[in-house]
Protein backbone atom coordinates (compact mmCIF):
# COMPACT_ATOMS: atom_id res chain seq x y z
CA UNK A 1 0.00 0.00 0.00
CA UNK A 2 2.76 2.44 0.97
CA UNK A 3 4.75 1.63 -2.24
CA UNK A 4 1.75 2.21 -4.47
CA UNK A 5 1.08 5.51 -2.77
CA UNK A 6 4.69 6.67 -3.33
CA UNK A 7 4.75 5.78 -7.07
CA UNK A 8 1.37 7.47 -7.52
CA UNK A 9 2.73 10.54 -5.81
CA UNK A 10 5.84 10.67 -8.09
CA UNK A 11 3.83 10.25 -11.30
CA UNK A 12 1.43 12.98 -10.19
CA UNK A 13 4.31 15.27 -9.43
CA UNK A 14 5.87 14.63 -12.85
CA UNK A 15 2.57 15.15 -14.62
CA UNK A 16 1.97 18.38 -12.81
CA UNK A 17 5.50 19.49 -13.68
CA UNK A 18 4.92 18.76 -17.38
CA UNK A 19 1.59 20.54 -17.37
CA UNK A 20 3.10 23.48 -15.53
CA UNK A 21 5.98 23.74 -17.99
CA UNK A 22 3.48 23.56 -20.89
CA UNK A 23 1.28 26.32 -19.56
CA UNK A 24 4.04 28.53 -18.28
CA UNK A 25 4.71 30.53 -21.56
CA UNK A 26 0.97 31.04 -22.04
CA UNK A 27 0.57 32.36 -18.59
CA UNK A 28 3.56 34.78 -18.89
CA UNK A 29 2.35 36.02 -22.39
CA UNK A 30 -1.09 36.65 -21.05
CA UNK A 31 0.21 38.23 -17.91
CA UNK A 32 2.78 40.86 -19.35
CA UNK A 33 1.83 43.00 -22.45
CA UNK A 34 4.60 43.50 -25.22
CA UNK A 35 6.27 46.91 -25.08
CA UNK A 36 7.41 46.62 -28.79
CA UNK A 37 10.97 47.51 -27.88
CA UNK A 38 12.54 45.83 -30.92
CA UNK A 39 10.93 46.82 -34.23
CA UNK A 40 11.61 46.04 -37.87
CA UNK A 41 11.15 48.77 -40.48
CA UNK A 42 10.03 48.13 -44.04
CA UNK A 43 11.29 50.91 -46.32
CA UNK A 44 8.80 52.50 -48.65
CA UNK A 45 9.12 52.38 -52.41
CA UNK A 46 8.29 55.46 -54.54
CA UNK A 47 5.66 55.00 -57.18
CA UNK A 48 6.72 55.13 -60.81
CA UNK A 49 4.83 56.03 -63.96
CA UNK A 50 3.69 52.42 -64.39
CA UNK A 51 4.05 50.81 -60.92
CA UNK A 52 2.48 51.76 -57.59
CA UNK A 53 4.69 52.39 -54.55
CA UNK A 54 4.45 51.69 -50.81
CA UNK A 55 4.80 53.82 -47.72
CA UNK A 56 7.17 52.79 -44.92
CA UNK A 57 5.96 50.07 -42.53
CA UNK A 58 6.91 49.09 -38.93
CA UNK A 59 6.56 45.63 -37.29
CA UNK A 60 7.47 44.45 -33.80
CA UNK A 61 9.99 41.61 -33.97
CA UNK A 62 9.11 40.37 -30.50
CA UNK A 63 5.35 39.95 -30.84
CA UNK A 64 5.04 40.16 -34.60
CA UNK A 65 2.43 42.91 -34.39
CA UNK A 66 2.37 45.30 -37.36
CA UNK A 67 2.65 48.74 -35.80
CA UNK A 68 2.45 50.79 -39.03
CA UNK A 69 0.95 49.14 -42.07
CA UNK A 70 2.43 49.90 -45.50
CA UNK A 71 0.07 51.92 -47.69
CA UNK A 72 -0.10 51.61 -51.45
CA UNK A 73 0.85 54.77 -53.39
CA UNK A 74 -0.81 54.68 -56.82
CA UNK A 75 1.31 54.84 -60.02
CA UNK A 76 1.84 58.37 -61.39
CA UNK A 77 0.80 57.30 -64.86
CA UNK A 78 2.78 59.88 -66.90
CA UNK A 79 6.36 59.42 -68.13
CA UNK A 80 8.70 62.45 -68.11
CA UNK A 81 10.75 62.28 -71.32
CA UNK A 82 14.47 63.01 -71.19
CA UNK A 83 16.73 63.32 -74.24
CA UNK A 84 19.45 60.74 -74.88
CA UNK A 85 22.12 62.44 -76.97
CA UNK A 86 23.03 60.87 -80.28
CA UNK A 87 26.57 59.90 -81.29
CA UNK A 88 27.63 60.88 -84.82
CA UNK A 89 29.05 58.10 -86.92
CA UNK A 90 32.67 58.53 -87.99
CA UNK A 91 34.68 56.98 -90.78
CA UNK A 92 35.68 54.07 -88.55
CA UNK A 93 32.95 53.81 -85.87
CA UNK A 94 29.17 53.60 -86.06
CA UNK A 95 27.01 56.19 -84.32
CA UNK A 96 23.61 56.41 -82.66
CA UNK A 97 20.57 58.54 -83.34
CA UNK A 98 19.08 60.68 -80.59
CA UNK A 99 16.75 58.81 -78.22
CA UNK A 100 14.47 59.51 -75.23
CA UNK A 101 13.76 57.86 -71.89
CA UNK A 102 11.53 58.54 -68.88
CA UNK A 103 13.28 60.66 -66.29
CA UNK A 104 11.40 58.84 -63.48
CA UNK A 105 11.23 55.18 -64.45
CA UNK A 106 14.08 55.08 -67.01
CA UNK A 107 11.75 53.42 -69.50
CA UNK A 108 13.09 53.96 -73.01
CA UNK A 109 10.51 56.02 -74.88
CA UNK A 110 12.44 56.56 -78.14
CA UNK A 111 14.87 53.81 -79.04
CA UNK A 112 18.28 54.91 -80.37
CA UNK A 113 19.08 53.68 -83.86
CA UNK A 114 22.55 52.67 -85.01
CA UNK A 115 24.11 54.88 -87.69
CA UNK A 116 26.58 52.81 -89.72
CA UNK A 117 30.21 53.99 -90.00
CA UNK A 118 30.77 56.11 -93.09
CA UNK A 119 33.80 54.01 -93.99
CA UNK A 120 35.67 56.56 -96.09
CA UNK A 121 37.82 59.42 -94.85
CA UNK A 122 37.23 62.75 -96.56
CA UNK A 123 40.57 64.30 -97.45
CA UNK A 124 41.16 67.90 -96.53
CA UNK A 125 44.41 69.69 -97.37
CA UNK A 126 46.44 71.26 -94.57
CA UNK A 127 48.33 74.13 -96.17
CA UNK A 128 52.11 74.07 -96.01
CA UNK A 129 54.28 76.92 -94.73
CA UNK A 130 57.34 77.78 -96.81
CA UNK A 131 60.65 77.90 -94.96
CA UNK A 132 62.43 81.23 -94.92
CA UNK A 133 66.07 82.08 -94.36
CA UNK A 134 65.57 82.13 -90.57
CA UNK A 135 62.34 80.22 -89.85
CA UNK A 136 61.58 76.58 -90.68
CA UNK A 137 58.45 75.68 -92.66
CA UNK A 138 56.06 72.75 -93.09
CA UNK A 139 55.13 70.62 -96.06
CA UNK A 140 51.53 70.31 -97.16
CA UNK A 141 49.53 67.70 -95.18
CA UNK A 142 46.05 66.16 -95.23
CA UNK A 143 43.46 65.21 -92.61
CA UNK A 144 39.99 63.70 -92.61
CA UNK A 145 37.30 66.37 -92.70
CA UNK A 146 34.96 64.16 -90.64
CA UNK A 147 37.07 62.46 -87.99
CA UNK A 148 40.13 64.79 -88.04
CA UNK A 149 42.44 61.81 -88.48
CA UNK A 150 45.74 62.96 -89.98
CA UNK A 151 46.10 61.20 -93.31
CA UNK A 152 49.26 62.91 -94.56
CA UNK A 153 51.66 64.06 -91.85
CA UNK A 154 53.25 67.48 -92.32
CA UNK A 155 57.05 67.43 -92.54
CA UNK A 156 59.30 70.18 -91.22
CA UNK A 157 61.24 72.07 -93.87
CA UNK A 158 64.45 73.37 -92.30
CA UNK A 159 65.24 77.07 -92.50
CA UNK A 160 67.35 77.79 -95.58
CA UNK A 161 69.84 79.75 -93.48
CA UNK A 162 71.15 81.81 -96.36
CA UNK A 163 69.53 84.80 -97.98
CA UNK A 164 68.87 84.72 -101.71
CA UNK A 165 70.48 87.93 -102.93
CA UNK A 166 68.56 89.95 -105.48
CA UNK A 167 70.13 93.06 -106.99
CA UNK A 168 68.07 96.23 -106.93
CA UNK A 169 69.35 98.14 -109.95
CA UNK A 170 70.83 101.60 -109.52
CA UNK A 171 68.81 104.60 -110.68
CA UNK A 172 71.01 107.02 -112.63
CA UNK A 173 70.72 110.69 -111.69
CA UNK A 174 71.50 113.78 -113.77
CA UNK A 175 72.10 117.49 -113.21
CA UNK A 176 68.43 117.95 -112.24
CA UNK A 177 67.55 114.78 -110.27
CA UNK A 178 69.52 112.74 -107.72
CA UNK A 179 69.91 109.01 -108.44
CA UNK A 180 70.19 105.86 -106.29
CA UNK A 181 73.06 103.43 -105.85
CA UNK A 182 72.63 99.70 -106.45
CA UNK A 183 71.02 97.83 -103.53
CA UNK A 184 70.61 94.22 -102.41
CA UNK A 185 67.54 92.48 -100.95
CA UNK A 186 66.70 88.87 -100.07
CA UNK A 187 64.14 87.63 -102.59
CA UNK A 188 62.80 85.09 -100.04
CA UNK A 189 62.41 87.05 -96.79
CA UNK A 190 62.59 90.56 -98.35
CA UNK A 191 65.24 91.64 -95.89
CA UNK A 192 67.26 94.63 -97.16
CA UNK A 193 70.86 93.47 -97.24
CA UNK A 194 72.33 96.61 -98.78
CA UNK A 195 70.29 99.80 -98.75
CA UNK A 196 70.22 102.12 -101.74
CA UNK A 197 71.86 105.51 -101.15
CA UNK A 198 70.94 108.72 -103.00
CA UNK A 199 73.69 110.06 -105.23
CA UNK A 200 74.68 113.72 -105.63
CA UNK A 201 73.52 115.80 -108.61
CA UNK A 202 75.29 114.84 -111.77
CA UNK A 203 77.23 116.98 -114.26
CA UNK A 204 75.66 118.99 -117.06
CA UNK A 205 75.89 117.46 -120.47
CA UNK A 206 76.74 120.23 -122.94
CA UNK A 207 75.94 120.37 -126.58
CA UNK A 208 76.97 123.53 -128.38
CA UNK A 209 77.44 125.36 -125.09
CA UNK A 210 74.11 124.44 -123.55
CA UNK A 211 73.12 121.59 -121.15
CA UNK A 212 70.88 119.16 -122.99
CA UNK A 213 69.08 118.25 -119.77
CA UNK A 214 68.47 121.47 -117.85
CA UNK A 215 69.29 124.05 -120.55
CA UNK A 216 72.08 125.68 -118.52
CA UNK A 217 74.42 127.76 -120.70
CA UNK A 218 78.08 126.90 -120.50
CA UNK A 219 80.01 129.71 -118.76
CA UNK A 220 82.39 131.79 -121.01
CA UNK A 221 86.23 131.90 -121.15
CA UNK A 222 86.86 133.31 -117.66
CA UNK A 223 85.85 129.85 -116.44
CA UNK A 224 88.04 126.84 -117.05
CA UNK A 225 87.35 125.60 -120.57
CA UNK A 226 86.47 122.05 -119.45
CA UNK A 227 83.03 121.11 -120.72
CA UNK A 228 82.23 119.54 -117.34
CA UNK A 229 82.23 121.83 -114.31
CA UNK A 230 83.38 120.20 -111.10
CA UNK A 231 80.76 118.55 -108.92
CA UNK A 232 81.39 120.94 -106.08
CA UNK A 233 80.25 123.86 -108.25
CA UNK A 234 76.74 124.76 -107.18
CA UNK A 235 74.38 124.54 -110.11
CA UNK A 236 72.04 127.33 -109.05
CA UNK A 237 74.86 129.84 -109.07
CA UNK A 238 75.60 129.18 -112.71
CA UNK A 239 72.72 131.16 -114.21
CA UNK A 240 73.91 134.21 -112.19
CA UNK A 241 77.35 133.67 -113.63
CA UNK A 242 75.84 133.72 -117.08
CA UNK A 243 74.05 137.01 -116.33
CA UNK A 244 77.28 138.40 -114.93
CA UNK A 245 79.02 137.50 -118.15
CA UNK A 246 76.46 139.50 -120.12
CA UNK A 247 76.81 142.63 -117.92
CA UNK A 248 80.30 143.69 -119.05
CA UNK A 249 79.25 143.40 -122.71
CA UNK A 250 76.28 145.75 -122.30
CA UNK A 251 78.55 147.98 -120.12
CA UNK A 252 81.04 148.21 -123.00
CA UNK A 253 78.34 149.22 -125.44
CA UNK A 254 76.90 151.90 -123.15
CA UNK A 255 80.37 153.39 -122.47
CA UNK A 256 80.99 153.58 -126.18
CA UNK A 257 77.57 155.19 -126.63
CA UNK A 258 78.31 157.71 -123.84
CA UNK A 259 81.59 158.58 -125.52
CA UNK A 260 79.94 159.06 -128.89
CA UNK A 261 77.09 161.15 -127.49
CA UNK A 262 79.50 163.10 -125.26
CA UNK A 263 81.71 163.93 -128.27
CA UNK A 264 78.73 164.95 -130.37
CA UNK A 265 77.34 167.08 -127.51
CA UNK A 266 80.66 168.88 -126.90
CA UNK A 267 81.06 169.43 -130.66
CA UNK A 268 77.54 170.97 -130.90
CA UNK A 269 78.24 173.18 -127.84
CA UNK A 270 81.53 174.28 -129.39
CA UNK A 271 79.81 175.13 -132.71
CA UNK A 272 77.04 177.08 -130.93
CA UNK A 273 79.61 179.03 -128.88
CA UNK A 274 81.53 179.90 -132.05
CA UNK A 275 78.34 181.06 -133.84
CA UNK A 276 77.26 183.13 -130.80
CA UNK A 277 80.71 184.76 -130.54
CA UNK A 278 80.70 185.70 -134.29
CA UNK A 279 77.18 187.31 -133.93
CA UNK A 280 78.36 189.31 -130.96
CA UNK A 281 81.40 190.57 -132.84
CA UNK A 282 79.19 191.62 -135.83
CA UNK A 283 76.97 193.71 -133.61
ZN1 LIG B 1 5.59 43.72 -29.69
ZN1 LIG C 1 8.12 56.76 -66.59
ZN1 LIG D 1 37.74 60.12 -91.29
ZN1 LIG E 1 66.33 86.00 -96.55
ZN1 LIG F 1 72.31 120.49 -116.88
Can you describe what's shown?
By secondary structure, this protein is an alpha+beta fold. Among the domains are: 86-115, no CATH class; 163-201, no CATH class; 203-283. The chain contains 2 helices and 20 strands. The protein has helices spanning 2-31, 238-282, and strands at residues 39-42, 53-54, 57-60, 66-68, 72-73, 81-84, 95-96, 99-102, 108-110, 114-115, 123-126, 137-138, 141-144, 150-152, 156-157, 165-168, 183-186, 192-194, 206-207, 210-211. A 3-stranded antiparallel beta sheet has the order 1-3-4, with no helix packed on it. A 3-stranded antiparallel beta sheet has the order 6-8-9, with no helix packed on it. A hairpin with a 5-residue loop joins strand 17 and strand 18. The radius of gyration is 67 Å and the shape is rod-shaped. Mean pLDDT is 79; it is low at 27-31 and 225-251. The site of one zinc ion has 7 residues, from loops. The site of one zinc ion (ZN) has 6 residues, from loops.
Amino acid sequence: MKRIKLSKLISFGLASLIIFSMFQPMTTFAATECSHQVVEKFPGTPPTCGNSGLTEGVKCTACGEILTAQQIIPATGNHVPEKISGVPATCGASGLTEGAKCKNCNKVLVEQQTIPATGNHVHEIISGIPATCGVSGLTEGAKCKNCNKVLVEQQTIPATGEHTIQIVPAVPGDCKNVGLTEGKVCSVCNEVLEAQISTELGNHIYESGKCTICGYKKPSSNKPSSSKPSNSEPVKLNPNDADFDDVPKTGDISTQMVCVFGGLFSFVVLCLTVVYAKRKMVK
